Amino acid sequence: DVKINPPKEFDGNRDDTLEFLTDCENFINTLGTTKFDTDTKKIAWTLSYLKGGSAGPWKISFIEGHPTGYRTWTEFKNKFKEVFGTIDHEAKNRLALINLRQGNTSADDHIVKFRTLIARSGINDNVSQTTLFQTSLNDALRAKIYSHDPLPTTIEEWYNKASTLDHQWQFANSMKSGSSFRSSRPTRDTKVRAVNLNFAERQKYIKEGRCFRCDKIGHR
């Protein structure tokens, strides 16, 4: 059987709100009706992970305020988001997405950061996601993607194309650096060649009109 980890305890930190709810939903949906066959069980189980910080006192208040039952799971989630500020949190992440730029990071690292912000921003439509991602890329990488036909259409295609082209660029750049390194290795000093020649060899060079520096005939 596949083992699904339960969520971490939640202390009311707004930066963790969306992740906590997502982990709860994932755990509940995986086990389904075998364990969570009522909304009351879903809510009670989720409340058990609220400890410390501002979440602990809110849990106590919520339980005491619902002596006859917890109503629906959807209502609970909406109330939870309202109290622990996912709306403000989403706005914060949307702003971070607008200002996000790749800079000197690799495409893969940039994609991880972009994915994280997108997941926390509440932006779900493909057009908005791809537009923001294109804007966040370096000019050179974005231009490289635009030069390929057909253009990516989904956000996943944009991720894959950006990663692939960035890997190709890094590989080509490493090869170029290696070639440059090899060509810059010190060559044999031409003056040493003449010094190392014996008398007979030097006489032969002179007779043939051969250059002591490059071994070619016609100049000395």
Describe it:
The protein has 220 residues and is an all-alpha fold. Helix content is 63%, strand content 0%. It has 11 helices and no strands. The chain has helices spanning 17-31, 39-47, 55-64, 73-83, 86-99, 107-121, 126-136, 139-146, 155-183, 190-196, 199-208. Helix 5 (86-99) runs antiparallel to helix 6 (107-121). The radius of gyration is 33 Å and the shape is elongated.
Mean pLDDT: 84
Biggest sheet statistics: none
Number of helices: 11
Tell me the Rg in angstroms.
Answer: 33 Å
Name the beta content range.
Answer: under 5%
Report the uncertain regions. 180-192
Helix content: 55-70%
Compute the separation of the termini in Å: 83 Å
CA-based shape: elongated
Overall strand count: 0
**How many distinct domains?**
3
Q: Structural class of the helices, strands and pairings?
A: mainly alpha
- Output the helix-strand order: HHHHHHHHHHH
InterPro entries: Retrotrans_gag_dom, RTL1-rel
Organism: Stereum hirsutum (strain FP-91666) (White-rot fungus)
Protein name: Retrotransposon gag domain-containing protein
Domain Retrotransposon gag: 53-137
